[in-house]
Specification:
The complex is a heterodimer. Chain A contains 17 helices and 20 strands. Chain A starts with a helix and ends in a 14-residue tail after the last helix. By secondary structure, chain A is of the alpha+beta class. Chain B is α/β, with parallel strands linked by helices. In chain B, α1 (5-11) packs antiparallel against α7, α16 packs antiparallel against α17 and α19 crosses α20. Chain B starts with a helix and ends with a strand. The chains are: A alpha+beta, B alpha/beta.
């Protein structure tokens, strides 16, 4: 490895390898790698992968940021951790074609600051809620969500073209980029789309070294509209009705997200905040709520969108709600609005403050099943003694829901880890029976349970992996792939 | 019975396990992505975009590996506690080059006391029998022999006072107010010591300098030589025990007496005197209308910026926050009060600088990273002694920031920061004038008592 990247960028120093651990947020499986390598160039990655493939050494790539905990933590067998943080160039911003080209180590914070300064009329698709050191690429590969995800769809859809190095030594450019002189303007390029093959791959296929990502207008006229309600069913139904106004207000509502009052409570130490709902009621929180972050090109358009949302909610409360009397508009202080619109933000971080550690167990459901998911999961959290913390957001105008229970637990206690995993297994089994999909499957519960019910899909996934990764070195085990 | 590093590390376990490795701690202004700045500036250490959040962990910037950024170190601490990693020289060499500036702690949404953790980790490393790096061994030996880490003659600790005609204040037995000078101002930046003492004299304060004063122990608490530090702590507490108030001109000494001593003292023990930095006194007197400054032609129109020393700035702010959190019954309601208190703390030196602007005619211009988000000067945490090249590069980065706002004079309120900034200024040619705020007041004879 030193021969490939130089002595300053490859190490088996135990302290350094241990420093990449991250048993939190998105997974609890992280193991200490045998060595860490920090390449800078595509050719270095190609050589590393060829060498590791020949020697049958496992490789787990991570982009520079950690996507709220390592997106691709090294798991057993540990092998090489490929830290792509040095590949941090913002290569191009093309306003006319509305594209940014970035390397894997470009963080949300860096790209945001750069565009605020040099391209203030445009916003990059950074993830809402992912910390500033999370990377644009990491979120894309997770096909997660962006700050305007309700309007434009999942994060994976925001990526047009990519460059990937496979362990067989091939460097492939996807979409229109497959042609040597083409701009990255068309995702589906030369025929069957290879980019999608990499979405959700969790580092099991190859190493993406460049990507062209859509940028969208960043208008001056923005606000947040919030409505409170007493139950998840009303939250689900009123949001769906608004999401279905597809040629109107739904495109203005860039981020549509909600949840329940423990989302607020568990951001503080367990012994330093009231647990009783009455306190939260007094300070203006409903038991459940939904926020519509709304962007528009003019004040008139913004006012109109806000009116449509509010009038619709009023009508829903009056005529169709399960508990219409409990539905009310939440008056937000300008500081609250500014805080909710801040990107990238640290909103997802302080759930460790409650005790010491937390885990997001995230599922995709059809939107009109998210209330069912919330009720099921809250019951499970209650049963296992965890606070019932639920966050739900719309993807692509309520075509899907991203449902994220936040498990706040004490990671100093081994028995808490076990409880989390027992609950995880139980709820995953239930979720799969409903046809709900895990967002970032963990290797020991979600992946095996999911693929055990999708054998044909897994068969082809494995066959395709074999083509690009003949010795199966890329993040083995991560998706139940050998 | 004083605590060991391992015991402190165990105490901090619930805090260590709060880290989710989000890495927000690598940035200044990690919560202000759209903060308007001053744009891009090409300085001696490269180009920095002073907009939104900016990479600000000196060790991370210098070494790059995850282990050198704060979150990496917190996970090393966790691995040690879990038994996944043992103390070795490899571990030492990763945890030592950290300036312990506390930028990481200031950014942490889970309020993890990172500086405490890193210092405890170092102490536990030393206790585990891992030798300190050579340069730290040297200063450890020097302080044991001479009561200061510079190797200065212990009998010459008060030479600066004698030379400046301030002898009458040495062991002034009637005084109830002390001035703890510290090693840097006693042996290196004597300008700071003289300026501070002369301001006290001019203000009519009956104070004493204690000839038996020894090093406060700061470098040794920082590098994990806790036994040495605790020995020094005991001597100082004995030497200063009869005083009611002790003033400081060094940020590091002030922090060590006020924050570290109570943490490393036995359960139930308390400091026998109050502590204050001299700038708090001057700032208070300005606010009370008791002093003002004289106009000065030489200074008029000069662009002056201010570097917040980590030890008096961020470390105190974090201490204020941790203490208020500990005492809060409803943190959701109290957080605003905590932030207000922190902001008031950072305004104290700025009261002086704004008054200098008003009375003297300097142009006070803030750098981009200030207060809780201030960038470190690179001197602390044993780094100046142990890793001088890294230390000076970090200091030069800070000088770049002063250059970026067009500063003529870079002020601070810590002789150790002063030393490092001044050395980097000379080495890299930043063409700044580096001085202490109180030094400026004394040097240009600016102080005027309001009758």
């Amino acid at each position: 490895m030193i021969g490939i990247v130089g002595k300053n960028y490859a190490t088996n120093n135990k302290a350094i390898t241990a420093s990449y651990l991250a048993k939190s947020v998105m997974g609890l499986e992280s193991q200490i790698a045998d060595i860490v390598v920090r390449p800078k160039y595509v050719e270095e990655i190609r050589k590393i992968l060829l060498y590791c493939s020949e020697e049958k050494i496992a490789v787990s790539p991570i982009s520079g940021g950690l996507s709220g905990g390592f997106a691709c933590p090294t798991i057993k067998p540990a092998g090489v951790q490929l830290d792509l943080g040095r590949m941090d160039r913002i290569i191009e911003i093309d306003e006319a074609n509305r594209i940014a080209i970035v390397e894997p180590g470009v963080t949300n914070g860096t790209l945001w600051a750069y565009m605020e300064k040099y391209h203030p009329d445009w916003a990059p698709p950074i993830a809402d809620g992912a910390p500033p050191a999370a990377t644009v690429m990491g979120d894309a590969i997770d096909r997660g969500f962006s700050l305007y995800t309700s309007s434009v769809g999942p994060q994976g859809d925001n990526f047009m073209c990519g460059e990937v190095v496979f362990p067989n030594g091939d460097i492939v450019r996807t979409g229109s980029w497959a042609l040597p002189f083409a701009k990255p303007f068309y995702k589906y390029g030369l025929g069957p789309d290879m980019w999608s093959f990499l979405m959700g791959s969790q580092g099991t296929m190859g190493v993406i070294t460049k990507a062209a990502v859509k940028i969208f207008p960043h208008p001056e006229f923005k606000t947040v509209v919030a409505w409170g309600m007493s139950n998840p069913q009303d939250m689900q139904d009123v949001t769906l009705e608004l999401g279905m106004k597809e040629f109107g207000v739904a495109h203005n509502t860039v981020m549509v997200q909600g949840g329940n009052y423990p989302l607020v409570m568990t951001r503080w130490p367990k012994d330093k905040v009231p647990h009783d709902y009455e306190f939260y009621k007094e300070i203006g929180f409903s038991k459940w709520w939904m926020n519509w972050e709304t962007w528009a090109q003019s004040q008139k358009e913004l006012d109109n969108a806000v009116d449509i949302i509010n009038n619709h909610c009023k009508d829903f409360a009056k005529n169709r709600a399960k508990d219409g009397a409990a539905m009310k508009q939440q008056e937000l202080h300008p500081k609250q609005i500014a805080s909710r619109m801040k990107k990238p933000n640290k909103i997802a971080i302080p759930y460790s403050f409650w005790e010491a550690g937390f885990l997001f167990i995230t599922f995709y459901t059809p939107w009109n099943e998210c209330a069912h998911f919330a009720e099921m999961y809250n019951a499970a959290m209650k049963k296992y003694g965890f606070p019932e913390v639920m966050w739900i957001a719309s993807i692509e105008r309520c075509r899907q829901a991203i449902c994220m229970p936040i498990i706040c637990f004490d990671s100093t206690k081994e028995e808490d880890f076990e409880k989390v995993q027992d609950m995880n297994r139980e709820t995953t089994e239930y979720a799969l029976k409903q046809g709900w999909l895990n967002y970032r499957p963990d290797p020991y519960i979600h992946a095996p349970l999911t693929y055990s019910q999708a054998a044909m899909y897994w068969k082809y996934l494995r066959a395709w992996k074999k083509i690009v990764d003949p010795n199966m070195i890329m993040h083995p085990g991560r998706l139940g792939l050998p | 019975m004083a605590k060991t590093g391992k015991e402190r590390l165990e105490e901090l376990k619930p805090e260590i396990f709060k880290c989710i490795h989000c890495k927000a701690c690598r940035f200044a202004y990690s919560g202000e992505p759209s903060k308007k700045g001053i744009g891009e500036f090409k300085g001696k250490q490269g180009t920095v975009l002073y907009e939104g959040m900016v990479d600000s962990c000196p060790a991370g910037i210098e070494y790059g590996w995850e282990a050198f950024w704060n979150a990496g170190k917190i996970w090393i601490a966790r691995s040690i506690l879990n038994g996944d990693l043992e103390f070795t020289e490899e571990v030492r060499d990763v945890i030592m080059p950290c300036i312990t500036c506390g930028q990481c702690s200031a950014q942490c949404e889970n309020k993890i006391p990172t500086v405490d953790i890193i210092e405890s980790l170092r102490a536990a490393c030393v206790e585990a029998g891992i030798p300190m790096i050579e340069k730290h061994q040297l200063v450890d030996r020097l302080v044991k022999e001479r009561n200061n880490p510079y190797g200065g003659d212990k009998d010459e600790r008060m030479k600066w006072a004698k030379d400046a005609g301030l002898e009458k204040f040495i062991n002034n037995k009637d005084a109830k107010i002390g001035y703890y000078v510290g090693c840097t101002a006693s042996y290196r930046q004597v300008e700071v010591a003289i300026a501070t003492a002369k301001i006290f004299e001019q203000l009519g304060i009956d104070f004493t300098l204690i000839e038996e004063e020894v090093c406060c122990g700061s470098p040794f608490f920082r590098v994990g030589a806790v036994e040495t530090a605790q020995e020094l702590m005991k001597k100082n507490l004995e030497n200063f025990k009869n005083l009611e108030m002790v003033y400081f001109s060094c940020a590091g000494c002030y922090r060590t007496f006020t924050v570290d001593y109570p943490k490393w003292m036995a359960e139930g023990e308390k400091l026998p005197f109050e502590t204050k930095h001299a700038f708090e006194l001057v700032s208070d007197l300005i606010t009370q209308g008791k002093i003002k400054f004289k106009p000065n032609k030489e200074l008029k129109g000069k662009v002056v910026t201010y570097h917040d020393p980590c030890h008096t700035g961020r470390h105190f702010a974090i201490e204020i926050e941790q203490e208020m959190i500990k005492n809060s019954k409803n943190l959701m309601l109290d957080m605003r009060k905590i932030n207000q208190k922190i902001n008031e703390w950072f305004e104290i030196p700025r009261v002086i600088l704004k008054k200098l602007e008003e009375d003297v005619g300097i142009v006070f211009k803030e750098m981009y990273r200030i207060k809780l988000n201030s960038m470190c000067c690179g001197a602390g945490g044993g780094v100046r002694a142990g890793y001088p090249d890294f230390s000076l590069r970090t200091s030069s980065l800070r000088c770049d920031e002063a250059n970026a706002v067009g500063a003529d004079i870079l002020t601070t309120e810590c002789p150790f920061c002063w030393r490092n900034l001044s050395d980097a200024n000379d080495l890299y040619g930043h063409e700044l004038q580096v001085m202490g705020v109180l030094e400026m007041i004394s040097k240009y004879n600016l102080l005027e008592i309001v009758k």
